[in-house]
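dTMP kinase (Gigaspora margarita), 212 aa
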Amino acid sequence: MTFLEKSRGAFIVLEGCDRSGKSTQVKLLVNRLEQLGHNVMLWKFPERKTQIGSMIDEYLKNVKDVDDKAIHLLFSANRWECMSEMKKKLLDGITLVVDRYAYSGVAYSAAKGLDLEWCKSPDIGLLTPDIVFFMNLTSEEAEKRFGFGNERYEEKAFQEKVRNTFNFLKDPTWKVLNACRAVEKLHKEIESLSLKTIQKCSNLPLKEDLWK
Ligand code: 2DT
Ligand code: MG
C-alpha cells in the first residue's frame, strides 16, 4: 500500500458491452469534472498506442489472428504496462476516468469459453478501481444497437455472451446503471456518484489488490 501525504485522485471505471454508451459517458464525465475544477484525465483500455497495444489493435481490426489465451495475456500486459503511470497520476491528485478495465478482459475472453478463474489470474494485483460503473442494457435494447461495427467481437451472438459473463462477474460494489435511459439522465447519476467517490477516497491509500 502507498500511504498519502496529499490528496489523491480517484480511479473511476466504466464497463459494459459494445454500444452501451461508455465512451459517451466517460467524455461527458471528464468535461464536467474539468468544469468543476477537478484535475482529471480520460484513459482507455486497450491503450492502443504502446507496442503491445498496437498488436491488440491489429487483432481487433482483424489484421491478425492471435491465439485466444495469448491475446488475453496481451490485454492484461497492456494494463500492467500502464500501472506505474496511472499510479503516479493518481498520487499527483489526478482523477482517472477509465473506459474499460480488467472486467472487460475477463468478460470477453470467458465469453469465448476460456475458464473464468484462468482469465482473472494475470490481472490479480492490479490497481483496484475506487468505483466501477456498469452500463447495463436489456438484451432488447442491446439488439437495437447492433448491426454495426467491423471490429472483432462486434456481433450480436457474441455480445450476448459477453453480457452474460459481465452479469456473472459483477459484484455488490459495482454501480449497475440502467443504460437504456437518456444520455443526460445517466450522466447526472454518474456525475453525482463520481463526485462522492472523489471526496471519499481523496485521503485513502491506493489499493493494488484487484481480485486478491
Ligand atoms: P473498444 O471498442 O472499447 O476499443 O474495445 N477487450 C477489451 C478485451 O477483449 N479484453 C480487454 O482486456 C479489453 C480492455 C472489448 C475493444 C474491444 O476489446 C475488448 C472490445
Ligand atoms: Mg468497440
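The helical segments are 22-35, 51-60, 68-91, 102-110, 116-120, 139-144, 156-169, 183-201. The longest helix spans residues 68-91. ok done for today
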